[in-house]
Amino acid sequence: MSFDVAIVGGGVIGAMTALELAEQGASVVVLERGAELAWGCSAGNAGIVGASHVLPLATPAAVRDGLRWMLRPDSPFFVRPRLGVVPWLTRFVAAATPAQVERSTQTLQAMATRSAARHAELARAGLDAGYRQGGLLDVFRSRPAFDAARAGAGEALTPREVAALAPQLGPGIAGGLYHREEAHCDPLRFVLALGAWAAALGVSIRTRTEVLGVRREGRRVLALQTTQGELAVDEVVVAAGVWTGRLARELDLALPLEGGKGYHVDVEAQPGDPSLPIWLHEHRVVVTPYGSRVRLAGTMELTGTDQRIDQRRVDAIVQAATRALPALATRPPVHVWRGLRPCTPDGLPVIGRVPGVDNVTLATGHGMWGLQLAPVTAELVAAIIRAQPPELPLAPLRADRFDPPWRAVTARERGTPASAGAPGAPAPPPAARTR
Question: Which stretches of sequence are listed as region Disordered (predicted)?
Answer without folding.
Answer: 410-435
